[in-house]
Amino acid sequence: MKHIPRKRFGQNFLTDQAVLYDIIRAIDPQPDDTMVEIGPGLAAMTSLLLESLKHLHVVELDRDLVARLRKNFAPQRLTVHEGDALKFDFASIVPAADRKLRVVGNLPYNISSPLLFHLTEIAPQVQDQHFMLQKEVVERMVAEPGSKTYGRLSVMLQWRYHMDLLFVVPPTAFDPPPKVDSAIVRMIPIAQPLACDAGKLEQVVTKAFSQRRKVIRNCVAGMFTENDLIDAGVDPQLRPEAVPLEQFVGLANRLGL
């Protein structure tokens, strides 16, 4: 029975075999990897991953797709976790302290940013992440200071990961075709990120980018004085998109002093 993609789950199923093989080559799954796929859908990528892996975990919210997965794959090869990826405890999959998790998936556009932030909580236990996301989102993730796309997402994720946009995927590779291009991003956790409290960094970055057209001094007024900015090495006349990650970390470390 044909599965009808559901808009409320943001379902766009990847069907282009050439693109699928490009993604598998980028991931390079190894037999003993501990890997989880988010949103396996109709299992196009799942099947290819299992050609290399001994075992795979998947997280799927759609009950119909969960039933299909459990019917089509033996539990010895595929563990299906039914539920919302935004609430799922990914750390529970890692079998031992000396093993790390590999995370892959075609992420629904409507939850991509909150899901990326959810995954930062287990970054020390992750080897790498390979995701298909809206191209615009990936461009924001990897944007450098001075770019119009550099913002909160760029700073928060670049503090925690090395990231690369690997290649672009056109709408024609999907069923149904989305209205935008997609892109594959590789995310490798930074072993020792700059010392900083994540909550404070989030506060500073959110405040700074709430009024992008203003200079940083005005954006963070009430949080920092002009002297605070100067002491942290930040030019008060810069716009927030020109402030590099290291200086945002410096500000976060001054918060509450």
Structure description:
By secondary structure, the protein is an alpha/beta fold. It folds into two domains: 7-189, Vaccinia Virus protein VP39 (Rossmann fold, 3-Layer(aba) Sandwich), CATH 3.40.50; 198-254, Helicase, Ruva Protein, domain 3 (Orthogonal Bundle), CATH 1.10.8.100. 32% of the residues lie in helices and 20% in strands. α4 (112-120) links the parallel β5 and β6 (126-134). α7 (198-208) packs across α10. The model is unreliable at 3-10 (pLDDT under 50). Pfam families: RrnaAD (PF00398). One of its GO terms (cellular component) is cytosol. This is Ribosomal RNA small subunit methyltransferase A.
Number of domains: 2
Rg estimate, integer Å: 20 Å
The CATH superfamily of the largest domain appears as Vaccinia Virus protein VP39
DSSP summary: helix tally: 10
DSSP summary, beta strand count: 9
Strand order of the largest sheet: 4-3-2-5-6-9-7
Specify the CATH architecture of the largest domain: 3-Layer(aba) Sandwich
Described by its quaternary structure, the protein is: single chain
Mean pLDDT score: 92
* Percent of sequence in beta strands: 15-25%
Main sheet attributes: strand count, strand direction, barrel closure: 7 strands, mixed
| N-to-C SSE string, H for helix and E for strand | EHEHEHEEHEHHEEEHHHH
Contiguous uncertain segments of 5+ residues: 3-10
Enzyme class: transferase
EC number: 2.1.1.182
Subcellular location: Cytoplasm
Binding site for S-adenosyl-L-methionine: 12, 14, 39, 60, 84, 106
